[in-house]
Amino acid sequence: MEKSFWIHILKRQLSDNKTIYKYMTKYNIQLYLFGSARVSKKPNDLDILLIYPDISKVTEALELKKELISYLQELNCKDIHMVLMTVQENDEINFVKKEGAIRFNICRKGE
Length: 111
Known about the structure:
Organism: Coprococcus eutactus
Protein name: Nucleotidyltransferase domain-containing protein
CATH superfamily: Beta Polymerase, domain 2
Number of strands: 4
CATH topology: Beta Polymerase, domain 2
Oligomer: single chain
Order of helices and strands: HHEEHEHHE
InterPro entries: NT_sf
CATH class: Alpha Beta
């Protein structure tokens, strides 16, 4: 199973959403895929890690979380489980490395 299947799908879907793209770029938010969707085309759910710069951006991160869950559940008919943490929190517990999370960047077409 190719690891990039869901990464490819999510990048394409999120690149089509102007609101999500603006949040991610304006507030320097990173997204990672972890869990079974890293290695399976048919996972039960999608586990996504949202890393935001610091506690001053928690409101924006929570708003983006709500938008992401709504948008992705509608498109994929899968439960979306999201974990939010600051850059510092990830550095302290090393979540990305421990979970083998794969970062995915999005870009708007024509930008």
